[in-house]
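Page 42, continued from yesterday. The earlier attempt failed because a stray header line got pasted into the input along with the sequence. Redoing it now with the clean sequence only.
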Amino acid sequence: MGKFGAMLDMSRNAVMKPQKVKEYIKILKSFGYNSIQLYTEDTYEIEGEPYFGYLRGRYSIAELKDIVDYAESLDMEVIPCIQTLAHLNQMFKWGVYREINDCEDILLIDDERTYELIDKMFSTLRKCFKSEYVHIGMDEAHNVGLGKFLDKNGYQNRFEILNRHLGRVIAIAEKYNFKPFMWSDMYFRLANHGEYYLENPEFPEGAKSSLPQNIALCYWDYYHDDENFYAKMMRAHKATGKEIWFAGGVNTWYGFASGNTLALKNMIPAMNAAKKEGIENIFMTLWGDNGKECSYFSALPSLYAIKRVYDGETDMDKIKREFSEITGESFDALLALDSPNFVSGNDNSAKGICKYALYSDPFCGFLDTCLTEGEGEKYKDIARELNAYALESKNYGYIFESLSALCETLSIKYDLGQRTRTAYASKDKEALKNLLPDYDRAVNLTEKFYEKFRTLWYTENKPNGFEIQDIRLGGLIQRLKSCKMALQDYISGKLETLAELDEPLLDYYGNGEKFTKNPVMYNGWSSNVSPNKV
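This time it went through. Structure tokens are written below.
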């Protein structure tokens, strides 16, 4: 029997409490899953490496053993999921690791200190996990061999560099009786001029023959809705002769709100393709990009439906009834947790609208060009709906309450910058004066949202990482106060002009002062909070 699992990202500041991981494992078991992966870049203890995951809420060896033992009691397998090449940026904050940093977040290949660290990784993993499998990552190392490695060794064929490193990692994994599998994109990209998702995918013979023997490949794809596209990519992977895994996604990585609707749109054709192509090892990823604001429990509807579709069930009404019987929760109610990203009436769950609308600066909000003035009113209805569901939910009222409070905030904050600019452009000081109460209301509502979101975080996660949310939401509150003070100074004549508002906004998509209004996928707080360097 193959593996059907979920992968929970524990590396984007929020590390779930062990008890909540156990809760999730129990739910997945009831859904028919048989495995779970905990994605830990540096958030697990390594013996003899005190700086690895330092102050990041890392799992201790004892915590991991406890999680594994609990899963085993339910006949669930916990598969370690780590990184052995890139995605180790937080580790490189510490001077003790900088000598083995090639560039960006990439380890320095061919340096023996790199392999000493990797050996310690696997030694510790083997003490914690009972699975024969280990996910070794190896994805998105786009500039491998082009930093410190290049300075030390000169330019070398990057395919050969990667292969050499992979061979060393496989040998270490096998030393500790692990069967490694890895994301496949680096091999596809290096063999196809940097491209991964190809209309006519083919794995060149030279690349195929150079792959080490004892490695399985994981094709990851969260973004397509064409069954035939998935099937072609799966066949290209199978042509390598390796054991093949497929990783889909349930869209928890776009900010505060989930993306179940998008996940179902994309993953149902993926499951149909996987079934036809005989792909038996499958897992759904729950990433937490840029701070992990989204609760993983909000993705339960898509996780259940995707598994049932893979099992052959096509009746969505039946799937919804089964979900309610198993969880005691309404499928459609949990699906409504997607709604803060749907204000435009379209499927914008991949856009993270509610996050960048929240953080968009009232004076310098360059992403305001992607929003439509007046749509903030829609958040009042969404807030009421989510609040009603909060009262009905047996287990997740705190999630509904958090997003309801967010929508209350957005009902004022969503287009506050646009309304401010419109009034300022007309030099209408009376209109600007009438906006001042909205700045106060935005502050008060943000503070209420902060309290609800803090409750969500501390219910599910260790405290580490919330300091970033303190900085972000606290910064938003202070910025709203600052903008209000500037407006008051302008209205009173203390300031003759507001320099930020004198400069016209330009369309994000490059159309000058003609705005396209199309939502954009812009989840990164540091890049959307200001045009200036953060």
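Notes: DSSP finds 20 helices and ten strands in the chain.
Reminder to self: strip header lines before submitting.
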